[in-house]
């Protein structure tokens, strides 16, 4: 193999990598968002299953880390806010450590939410 052939092969590999890497990164971000969506539903199911006149999530969340979730703790943190004993909002916030906050689906506050009345925001992320 001559030097010219080797350089041509290196250029071709470089072009393919330049095209493939952004697509790969986008798919990784989407797959982690899907896991976070599943975890929001899992948290909601646990809250509804253990409801006894009020919601207790102390066994589910601690410091933004979910005990029963599959999400990477470097990509999402979780929170539950409750303004009444019969209402809550579960939030997954994308973190910047591994680029999850670059998710094109998430805008503004970089959060995904699910409420006790099944309102899902942003709705495009849930499709």
From TrEMBL:
Coiled-coil stretches: none
Organism of provenance: Vibrio alginolyticus
UniProt keyword annotation of Transferase present: no
NCBIfam families: IV_pilin_GFxxxE
Protein name as it appears in the record: Prepilin-type N-terminal cleavage/methylation domain-containing protein
Residues that span the membrane, as ranges: 6-24
Domain of life per record: Bacteria
Keyword Transmembrane: yes
Cross-referenced Gene3D superfamilies: Glycoprotein, Type 4 Pilin (3.30.700.10)
GO biological process, one term: type IV pilus assembly
Keyword annotations: Membrane, Transmembrane, Transmembrane helix
